[in-house]
Amino acid sequence: MKKTLQISTLLLGTALAVSPFLALSQQPYPGEDHTAKQDAKRAGHETKEAAKDTGRAVKHGTKKAYNSTKKGTKKAAKKTKNVVKGGVEGVKEGAKQPE
To answer: Going by C-beta distance under 8 Å and a sequence separation of 6 or more, which residues neighbour residue 28?
Structure first.
């Protein structure tokens, strides 16, 4: 009985001691190629996707800025038109009623 317990303990201890080495020797993603060439390809693909995302964000920001500027310009033109129109009418009134 004591001999069986010692053998079981020895096998369990050996398994626990060896298991970290087995875990470290495995590839992070089994079935994938982990060469420098594949890593470079993956980095290039990720860079391409990041550039696309940045381009979309710039496009959205540019569109928003354009629309805001357009709206502000129309509003300013309308106000200027009203002020000029009021000034012209004031000058006409002043010309009709000389003091």
So the answer is: 34
